[in-house]
Structure prediction request, 125 residues.
Amino acid sequence: MAKSTTARVDRNNGELTLQQHDSDSPILPVAQIEQLHKFRPDAVDWIIQQTQIEADYRPKETQRLNTFTLVERIVGQVFALIIGLTGIVGGSYVALNGQPAAGGTIASVAITGLAAVFLTGRAKK
Prediction:
């Protein structure tokens, strides 16, 4: 999303000019490049070079972030599976060793806890 702000005051050549441009694009607006060319022509090539470096970097960074997000989600799912299976196995073990109410409670709490985390995570999105 690009945002632009421009303010000018010219009180008999006491000029005050404010320009602000906010964009996620790596390319400067043409008007700013033209102003820079008037002021420092040698800096335009440097700006173009830096823009190219940024344009080459962005897809790599996006891919890296997407990979980290995928790994984070997979690891979370694996740990949720481990917690759920541990709760069910532990509850079954307790139930088979003479405490069916305690075993059912342990297994139910493990599954309910995972469901609550899953549902509140979906509600935040």
Observations:
- The mean pLDDT is 86.
